[in-house]
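Hey, weird one. I pasted the Pectinesterase sequence into the form twice and got a warning about non-standard characters only the second time. First submission, copied straight from the form history:
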Amino acid sequence: MLPLKFAIAVFLVVLIGNSIVAEDPYRYFDWNVTYGTIYPLGVPQQGILINGQFPGPDINSVTNDNLVINIHNSLDEPFLLSWNGVQNRRNSFVDGVYGTTCPIPPGRNNTFNLQVKDQIGSFYYFPSLAFHKAAGGFGGIRILSRPRIPVPFPDPANDYTILIGDWYKKNHTDLKTILDGGRKLPFPDGILINGRGPNGVTFTVDQGKTYRLRISNVGLQNSLNFRVEGHKMTLVEVEGTHTLQTTYSSLDVHVGQSYSVLITANQEAKDHYIVVSSRFTTPVLTTTAVLHYSSSNTPVSGPPPGGPTIQIDWSLNQARSIRTNLSASGPRPNPQGSYHYGMINTTKTIRLASSAGQVNGKQRYAVNSVSFVPLDTPLKLLDYFKIGGFRVGSIQDSPTGGGIYQDTSVLGVDYRQFVEIIFENNEDIVQSWHLDGYSFWVVGMDGGQWTQASRDGYNLRDAVSRCTAQVRTKKRKNSI
Ligand SMILES: *[C@@H]1O[C@H](CO)[C@@H](O)[C@H](O)[C@H]1NC(C)=O
Ligand SMILES: *[C@@H]1O[C@H](CO)[C@@H](O)[C@H](O)[C@H]1NC(C)=O
Ligand SMILES: *[C@@H]1O[C@H](CO)[C@@H](O)[C@H](O)[C@H]1NC(C)=O
Ligand SMILES: *[C@@H]1O[C@H](CO)[C@@H](O)[C@H](O)[C@H]1NC(C)=O
Ligand SMILES: *[C@@H]1O[C@H](CO)[C@@H](O)[C@H](O)[C@H]1NC(C)=O
C-alpha cells in the first residue's frame, strides 16, 4: 500500500501547484556537439555539428517558455554556447560566456535552463569560446508572440531562418594560431548562407504568398548586404522590437545582428537569386541562394544583382531609418512606445573605445586599453559566492589613450542606474558591440568625435531597442 499512497500524495501536490500558478511551458533539447567533416566551400574541413547538423537546429519558442537544453560536449576542448539576445532575466548564470558560465569539459554534459521571459523576436546561438564559431555550432532562435498578443502583420505562409556569415577554409585552431602569431585575421574565403556555398540552399515559396525571413549575421568580422533579386523586403522586427514597416531593396546586416523581413512572392514564377555580399571590402565577396517559386521550371541564371559595396553613408542612412513602431505590441499587449526611455535622466555616462594591437607578440583586441583575460572561475560565481579575486573598476569608464594591457576588466554600475554608453571606433573595420543579456536603445550614430553637443541629435522617441549595434570605422561613434 505504501507506494500507492506515496504516488497519490505526489499527484495531489502537482495538481495543487498547477491550479495556483499556470506554469509557463517547458521545451526540452538534448544536443550532442561533435566534430564532423563539412564541405561548405567545396573542400573538406572539420566543422562543429549539433546532433549531426551544420548549422545547428533552430530553437523555436514562445514568450515566457522555459528552455531546458542539455548539451553533451563530444569535442576535445571545453565548449560553451551563448544565446545571443536572450535576456536571461531570471538566470544569467547560463549566459554561456566566460564571465558567467563554466565551460563544459570535453566528454561531459551540462544543462542550461533559460526562460525567454517577456521577449519576442529573432536571435541565434553560437559557441563563445576558442574561435569555435569559425567552425560552426550556431543556429537560429525564434521567440513567437503568445497566441492572444497582436502581431503587427498577418501570419506569414512560412518562416525561414537565414544565417549568413563570412567563412574561412582554415579551421578554428589555425585561425587562432594566426592571431597568436601576431597577425590579424586574413580576408575570408567566402560567405555562407545556412552553412552552404553558392546556390547551396533553396527556399521554396508559392506565388502570391508572403514569407518571413529571419536573417542573422553569424560571421566573424564582415558586415554583409542581403537582397533578393527582383523583390522588395519589408522590415518588421529587429532583435525583439517590431519596427516601422519600411520597405528596402537590400539590407545591411552587421556581425551579430538579426533582422526579420517579410517578402511577398509577387514576381515572375521563376527562380530568383538571394544574394549576400560583403560590405566595405575590396574585393567584394558575393554568394547566392535560391528563392524557388513552387511552380517554377526556370533556374536562376545570369549574374546576381549587385548591391552597395563601400558606401558608408548609404548604410548609415539605412540604419537611422530603422525605428520602433510605437503603436505595435511587443511581448505584451501594451504598445512598445509606452515606456518613454527619452524622458529618463541619465545617471551615468560610459565611453568605450575599441583598439587592436600586439600583446606579447599576439594579436589582441581591447576596450579602453584593456584586453580581457578570463579567470579560472566565472566572475558571476566569484561574485555570488563572495569569493573575490577580481576588481570592480579594473577598466576605466572612458578611453585612456594608453597602450593595450591585459586584465580581467570589470566595470561597475549601480542597480537601477540609467546608463548612456558611447562607443568609439578608431579601427579601420566596422565593430559590432553586443550587450549580453540586455537590450539598449540606439539613440545616435555619427562620424567625428563625440561631444556633449552630440546629445542634441539623439533620437529620444522611437529608436530601436536591440542587443547588437555596429560602430563604423575611424572616428565614427554610436551612443546607446
Ligand atoms: C555524441 O556523438 C558521438 C559521435 O557520434 C557519440 O560517440 C556519442 O556517444 C554521442 N553522445 C551522446 C550523449 O549522444
Ligand atoms: C547529462 O545528461 C544526462 C542524460 O543524458 C542527464 O541525465 C544529466 O542530468 C545531465 N547532466 C547535467 C549536469 O546536465
Ligand atoms: C505599426 O503597428 C500598428 C499596430 O499593429 C500597425 O497597424 C501599423 O501598420 C504599423 N505601422 C507601421 C508604419 O509599420
Ligand atoms: C586544423 O587543421 C590543422 C592543419 O591545418 C590540423 O593540424 C589541426 O588538427 C586541425 N584542428 C582541428 C580542431 O581540426
Ligand atoms: C530629471 O532631472 C530633472 C532635473 O534634475 C528633474 O526635474 C526631473 O524630475 C528628472 N526626471 C525624472 C524622470 O527623474
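That's the output from the first submission. The warning seems to come from a hidden character in my clipboard, not from the data itself. The pocket of 2-acetamido-2-deoxy-beta-D-glucopyranose (ligand 4) is lined by residues 46, 171, 173-174 (CB under 6 Å).
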